[in-house]
Design brief:
The complex is a heterodimer of chains A (435) and B (411). By secondary structure, chain A is of the alpha+beta class. Chain A has helices at residues 2-15, 17-44, 82-91, 128-132, 144-149, 158-165, 218-223, 260-280, 293-299, 305-335, 337-345, 350-384, 398-424, 428-434, and strands spanning 56-61, 96-107, 117-124, 136-139, 153-156, 174-177, 180-188, 214-217, 232-233, 248-249, 252-256, 288-292. Classes of the chains: A alpha+beta (435), B alpha+beta (411). At the A-B interface, helix 2 and helix 10 of A face helix 2, helix 5 and helix 9 of B.
Chain lengths: 435, 411
């Protein structure tokens, strides 16, 4: 039966070439726009560490002054002072914990005839690599003792190792950064979570690139006066050169909490710390926050407004395209009332007529989806040439490929419902009489 | 005059298709109105005046290494060398440029020392000779004199030691900021306060000077301070030259700086035009996408109208034939279909306006957009009427060409 419907549908589509082309084209445009924007939206709201994100939490406390504080409404700032970060780290209340700040440094070339260059880096603590599951090609991270002693050790990214040492095992070698010698203890495999979640709001970019080039102990960076990318001070008299004591926030603190009980415990611990600081007069606000990774990304609004707006626009566009298809399908089916009358008179049931028209709509949908895929590829090509950070990451993956056809089929079947229903409601007698 | 009653009674017999068309036009109208409005917003942003001599400036930023005491001497040497390059009119070390990527310094501003919270967040321009190098137009008062400037490094050290007597005490503000802080009053001679009550007296007012970023905080809430910068503080060399000399001056300036110290890394070298172009690249792209969407939407809707109108014409061939046989002219038939389309479009537009307003309200809540100005409604309506009439013209002409003899044939 299905084969027969297919045959009928194809004949009918072929008979009205212009109308069919119009339907397919408008559906394809709508689908293309939707798939393009949904791909970008998914890319931006994706999980950078799918295996671990539910166990990673971002801790926040609020050392700001009392003025402007509204209990329950004021959110704590996104970064921490050195004092608070070090307290949380040394308390060891989580399975792993690390403090993070961004920096950049001038790296001297290994060969004589090359020029020095700047690279992005992360100043952090020993747990960083285990916490975020950063994979090592050679060597390993540094130890807690290196953190305390401010050792001049460094972990470099795969691409920097490629650039400086041609990809060979460089563990134990020395590189010169900001005119200081650093001993390489580890080389990472290519590692570039998108977005660079561990550094949101610490300055620098969130998307794209090969990731950070180098990782060095926080204390070492402070000893060598390598300032962080972004500092926010809550008191006016500042000594930028003494970051350890300055009333300035510049560190992000991440903790790993394996289960619900651990999360609840840590929340209590954090709240107690803030209350204790208020009691001592160091804080005036006892607000704290402990968001999981995905919650933190939402809080930081990593998806730009423009992208949401574009997605809304695309879905509005698809709605109009579907409406358009409904109208055209309806016009087509009403024109064929006579044919329907004949089929009904010859014994076709209402269900058969309904099925026939739905198959026709489905074919329009599938062809529209196929063409829409082309439009989406074109759209993504356009996105890749946009000036956004995430531009280079916009590609169609398998799930979006399948999703395209689901959207196309659903859209066209919805569009086909009304015309098919009207078609199967045609009474055979008057149609036959008229001819 | 066209009789509307027969049109209504015909449409009542095609309720579903007529409603579909009305709905499609309404949605198109709503989306197009808002999209055009969004484009307008972007164009307005891209058109903001920077207040500087845009086509005459180039910027060079160097990596910051070394202590700031050496940096001051180094900067003076660099400046002297740069001034000798042919084509260079003026050079200054300035911390930031309007509408360009790469950090910005801002400061909270208060109107009295007792005030608990900042009135607003203004951007702060530092650098000796910044105004004249940038080509900012002074409206009232005067520019800073050489003796008024203090070194950035010294100020930081003084603040740290709590030694406030050598701090600068004067400031220059933009007209926009002056009007916001002291509406209807003379700005010269007023005092603003920063942090814990540090006073600064306004000695000059400039016409325009945009802020580097964060434009939603007031695109022209800018201040200029008598603070001398060095390249080690993250500031840039800004060179003023003739528009046609920019490329060569930039090249020879970079070569000169590298020659003075081969170990330096050039982080940024660009003309101001490029910097501004890059800064607004996102807005340009978004406006382009919106134009594309509008074009696609209007095309789809027009094609939908063509399709449905053709169907109606085909269905009513006999009626048209009868009308022609009874004396209706071709013009009557043509006008009939045009009037029908006009009527449907009007219904659609009416619904569309309500919908457009609703979408705008939603956008105002979620995306901090302003209210849709009234002008967009008549313009949107006119566009859709014209599109509707153009789309229906073909089918209507075909209808007008139906010969009266059709009436005598059985359907």
């Amino acid at each position: 039966m299905f084969g027969y419907y297919m045959d009928l549908a194809l004949r009918s589509l072929k008979r009205h070439k212009v109308l069919t082309t119009l339907m397919v084209l408008s559906l394809a445009l709508g689908i293309g726009a939707c798939i393009t924007t949904t791909t970008v939206l998914r890319l931006l709201s994706g999980d950078p560490l799918p295996q671990k994100s539910s166990q990673l939490f971002y801790a926040q406390v609020d050392p700001n002054a009392k003025e402007g504080y509204i209990a329950g409404q004021t959110e704590p700032p996104s970064t921490m002072t050195y004092v608070d970060a070090m307290f949380l780290l040394h308390a060891h209340r989580a399975k792993r914990q690390a403090a993070v700040a961004l920096t950049s440094g001038k790296i001297a070339p290994q060969r004589a005839n090359e020029r020095p260059f700047y690279s992005d880096g992360v100043q952090t603590t020993a747990d960083f690599f285990g916490l975020f599951g950063a994979p090592f090609e050679y060597g390993s991270g540094w130890t807690a003792a290196d953190d305390e002693g401010g050792s001049q050790v460094i972990v470099i990214a795969s691409f920097l190792n490629q650039k400086l040492f041609g990809g060979a095992n460089s563990v134990g070698k020395t590189i010169r950064m900001n005119d200081h010698d650093f001993r390489i203890v580890g080389v990472l495999k290519p590692w570039s979570p998108q977005p660079r979640f561990y550094a949101l709001d610490l300055g620098g970019h969130d998307y794209g690139g090969d990731g950070d080039a180098m990782f060095l102990p926080l204390k070492t960076a402070m000893d060598l006066k390598m300032g962080p990318q972004d500092i926010e001070c809550y008191d006016s008299v500042t000594d930028v050169n003494n970051l350890a004591a300055a009333p300035c926030m510049w560190l992000g603190v991440w903790v790993e909490l394996p289960d619900q009980a651990a999360v609840a415990d840590y929340r209590t611990f954090l709240a107690n710390y803030a209350r204790q600081q208020v009691a001592q007069g160091r804080f005036s606000r006892d607000e704290t926050a402990l968001l999981d990774l995905m919650g933190w990304l939402r809080d930081q609004q990593v998806v730009p407004d423009d992208v949401r707006l574009q997605a809304g626009l695309a879905y509005g566009f698809l709605l109009i395209c579907v409406l358009n298809t409904v109208g055209l399908l309806l016009a087509k089916c009403l024109r064929r009332s006579r044919e329907i009358g004949v089929r009904r008179a010859l014994g076709a049931t209402r269900g058969a007529i309904f099925g026939q028209f739905m198959v026709e709509a489905g074919i329009v949908g599938l062809v529209g989806g196929l063409l829409g895929l082309g439009f989406a590829e074109l759209g993504l090509f356009g996105i890749r040439h946009q000036p956004a950070e995430y531009a280079s990451l916009a590609h169609l993956d398998l799930s979006m490929f399948v999703f395209t056809f689901v959207v196309a089929l659903v859209a066209s079947l919805i569009a086909g419902l009304l015309p098919a229903w009207r078609a199967c409601a045609v009474a055979p007698a008057p149609q036959l009489k008229a001819s | 005059m066209i009789e509307l009653r027969p049109i209504f009674s015909t449409l009542r017999r095609h309720k579903t298709t007529a409603w579909l068309l009305v709905l499609e036009i309404a949605l198109t109208c709503a989306i197009v109105c808002n999209a055009v409005f969004l484009i307008g917003q972007r164009l307005q942003r891209m058109d903001l005046p920077s207040g500087v001599a845009e086509h005459e400036l180039v910027q060079i930023q160097l990596g910051r290494i070394g202590k700031s005491t050496e940096a001051m001497a180094q900067s003076q040497t660099d400046l002297a060398a740069l001034r000798l390059i042919p084509g260079v009119k003026q050079v200054a070390v300035i911390n930031q440029l309007p509408f360009s990527d790469g950090g910005a310094s801002n400061s909270g501003i208060r109107l009295s020392p007792q005030q608990q919270q900042d009135t607003l967040e203004a951007t702060t321009y530092y650098g000796e000779g910044a105004l004249s190098t940038l080509g900012v137009r002074l409206l009232e008062g005067r520019d800073f004199q050489h003796g008024e400037y203090a070194d950035f490094g010294t100020i930081i050290a003084d603040l740290h030691n709590g030694d406030l007597k050598n701090l600068p005490s004067t400031i220059i503000v933009t007209q926009a900021l002056a009007q916001r802080l002291w509406p209807g009053q003379e700005a010269l001679g007023q005092t603003i306060y920063v942090g814990k009550g540090l006073p600064f007296r306004v000695i000059g007012v400039v016409a325009d000077l945009g802020r580097p970023n964060d434009l939603n905080q007031g695109p022209e809430y800018s201040t200029v301070w008598p603070i001398r910068m060095t390249v080690a503080d993250g500031s840039s060399y800004v060179i003023r030259t003739a528009p046609q000399d920019r490329a060569t001056v930039l090249q020879s300036a970079v070569a000169k700086l590298k020659q003075l110290d081969p170990n330096r890394v050039v982080l940024v070298k660009r003309t101001y035009d490029d910097a501004r172009h890059e800064f607004f690249a996102n807005d340009r792209a978004m406006a382009g996408i919106l134009v594309g969407v509008i074009a696609a939407l209007l095309t789809v809707t027009a094609l939908g109208i063509v399709g449905l109108a053709s169907f109606w014409v085909g269905q009513r061939r006999r009626t048209i034939g009868v009308r022609r046989a009874l004396g209706a002219t071709r013009g009557d038939i043509l006008r009939y279909f045009q009037a029908e389309n006009f009527l449907l479009a009007s219904f659609g537009i009416a619904f569309g306006m309500v919908l457009a307003y609703g979408i705008n309200l939603f956008l105002m809540v979620h995306y901090e957009l302003p209210r849709l100005p009234g002008i967009y409604f008549p313009v949107g309506a006119a566009v859709l009427w014209v599109i509707g009439q153009l789309a229906v013209l073909g089918p209507a002409m075909r209808a007008a060409n139906v010969p009266p003899v059709v009436a005598t044939r059985s359907a």
